[in-house]
Specification:
The complex is a heterodimer. Chain A is mainly alpha-helical. Chain A is built from 13 helices and two strands; from the N terminus they run ααββααααααααααα. By secondary structure, chain B is of the alpha/beta class. In chain B, the strands form two sheets. In chain B, strands 1, 2, 3, 4, 6, 7, 8, 9, 11 and 12 form a ten-stranded mixed sheet that branches. The longest helix of chain B has 19 residues. Chain B is elongated. The chains are: A mainly alpha, B alpha/beta. At the A-B interface, strand 1 and helix 5 of A face helix 3, strand 7 and helix 6 of B.
């Protein structure tokens, strides 16, 4: 007797495939259902563009947090992208394969460190360094950007290496045979050929950076404040939800769900821009 | 193989089920204020030792949750640490079981020893931004506060009155992280529950009164908030017994031993 026939396997796999999608759908529906009524009753413009967040007084403006989320993510990109892509290029083009096979999994281990540990290191080591050398409270946009930049390194390095290694060896050989140096080959041939993969790695890193919560709560200082400098303390959208959820009731609670709706929208917009960018690059080739 | 796993799982489930609903204990749920939660847990343990037929479960969630769950019946007893109970707690029977001082804390390296309530208010409002304005060194003040909705924060702001927290104040989400932040930053100022003062931070005198158990009991220290236990309807049966136990000499001794102040 065959335990599983062709049809059963297909059916089973279909259920698993739909479970992921339906869970995504359920989460989105739940957040929208809880948050959207608040946005309508409070007013979208007031909610998005007011910078007064005082739940006790019934003022819910998340503009400072939207700005902060974007700044922190941009900061993480500035720190993480050059380091990650540079590291990936060095490991794939200059390092012997045998060495790379040891170093790459080691870098990937960074992803296995829980975010609370990154936050802890940020609070105990990074924040005092910034406070003593640059001033400000230490818990700031800058420290959040650095910590997040490090957290997204494994994503960027690992996927970039994979896409660089996927460039056929014959491309490089052709370039070298024409008399190009290793660096000329890298920036004129290898990077061009693996561009879409490198961009995808940066976008995945971006997704992780904007969604990260725990480490950011610990190092960003969490003031509801539009930052004037990288040394100012900020509160991101994710931090706002996590910080206040435990105590929030009534309108306040709905406002936090509405913050989740906005976060969802921001992430969808970023991802769409990113995937359009990737598609264009692929089309151009 | 598969069968064996299933057998193990079902055996475990049966054991858990039988263990779980064992002897038909009367259960009591207490929920709310995170400031009082560790005390409630300790009191519950002691109470269960002397009353083996009763099981007391303690949950956190904050004062708002305490009021909400007492109202909805999700918990028999709600805990709240607010200076004044809000409208929706009007239908609940409130008993003060302890008092808690709110200490204004700075780093031990700070040379300031005391502030007036007006100075504290101005610092948290952002009117005073440099330590030299209150007699300290020339350094900017880093204000550290709790998140909106925290019982400690709302008590602090209600007692001081007219507090409109400055925008760039750092926000931390527990007494413990406030303590860490203040201990690590020589120019910071924060506030936390009096029971959590340790050698890493320094509590300031407020209007000349030190923040100690004696001054709080004597009524000299201004920043004091009551801790309420809230019960729907009238006190009776098991809830009354448990609250009576907390108010008894033994219960109050436990409260004092861990840094809170007695109710009376």
């Amino acid at each position: 007797m065959k335990p599983f026939g062709e049809k059963q396997v297909k059916g089973l796999l279909m259920i698993t495939a739909f479970s992921a999608i339906s869970i995504l759908l359920l989460i989105a529906l739940f957040i929208i259902n809880e948050g959207l009524p608040f946005i309508f009753s409070y007013g979208l413009k007031e909610f998005l563009l007011s910078s007064e967040w005082q739940p006790q007084l019934g003022k819910f403006g998340i503009y400072p947090m939207i700005v902060a989320s974007l700044w922190v993510t941009l900061g993480a990109m500035i720190v993480g992208a050059p380091l990650g892509v540079g590291g990936a290029l060095f490991l794939s083009e200059y390092t012997p394969r045998s060495v790379m096979r040891i170093i790459k999994p080691t870098i990937e281990l960074l992803a296995a460190i829980p975010s609370v540990v990154y936050g802890f290191i940020g609070v105990m080591v990074l924040a005092p360094i910034i406070r003593d050398n640059f001033g400000g409270p230490g818990l700031s946009l800058l420290s959040a950007s650095i910590i997040l930049g490090i957290m997204i390194l494994p994503t960027i390095v690992s996927i970039s290496i994979d896409s660089i290694l996927a460039v056929p060896q014959s491309y490089r050989e052709g370039s070298l045979a024409l008399g190009a140096t290793t660096w000329q080959t890298i920036h004129m041939v290898t990077i061009k050929a693996s561009k879409s993969g490198i961009i995808a790695s940066i976008i995945l890193g971006l997704g992780r950076a904007i969604g990260e919560t725990m480490a950011v709560i610990m190092v960003a200082g969490n003031s509801v404040n539009i930052p004037n400098s990288p040394l100012d303390s900020v509160r991101t959208l994710t931090a706002n939800i996590a910080l206040e959820m435990s105590y929030a009731t009534g309108m306040h609670r709905q406002a936090l769900f509405a913050t989740g709706v906005i976060l969802l929208v921001v992430i969808i917009i970023l991802n769409s821009i990113a995937s359009v960018a990737i598609r264009k690059r692929i089309a151009r080739r | 193989m598969f069968n064996n796993i299933m057998k193990t799982i079902s055996a475990l489930a049966i054991v858990l089920l039988i263990g779980g609903c064992g002897k038909g204990k009367t259960s009591l749920t207490v929920a709310g204020s995170t400031a009082f939660q560790p005390f409630a847990e300790k009191l519950a343990d002691q109470y269960m030792n002397s009353h083996p037929d009763i099981s007391v479960t303690v949950q956190g969630g904050g004062s708002a949750v305490g009021i909400q769950s007492a109202n909805s019946g999700a918990a028999q007893i709600g805990m709240a640490d607010l200076v004044a109970l809000p409208e929706d707690a009007k239908g609940l029977t409130a008993t003060i079981v302890a008092k808690d001082g709110i200490a204004i804390v700075v780093s031990p390296s700070n040379q300031i020893d005391g502030l007036t309530t007006d100075q504290v208010r101005d610092i948290f409002n952002g009117k005073i931004t440099n330590w030299k304005e209150v007699g300290g060194i020339d350094a900017p003040i880093t204000v550290v506060s709790r998140e909106a909705g925290s019982g400690t924060r709302s008590s602090f702001e209600q007692i001081l009155a007219n507090v409109n927290l400055k925008r760039d104040a750092l926000i931390q989400d527990s007494n413990g992280t406030i303590r860490e932040t203040v201990a690590n930053d020589a120019n910071s100022i924060g506030y936390l529950s009096h029971g959590l003062i340790n050698e890493k931070i320094k509590a300031l005198k407020v209007d000349g009164a030190e923040c100690t158990s004696e001054t709080i009991i004597a009524g000299n220290y201004k920043l004091v908030r009551p801790i309420f236990l809230l019960v729907k309807g009238t006190l009776e049966g098991e809830t009354k017994n448990f609250i009576d136990y907390i108010l008894s000499e033994e219960g109050q001794k436990t409260i004092v031993a861990d840094g809170l102040l007695p109710a009376k």
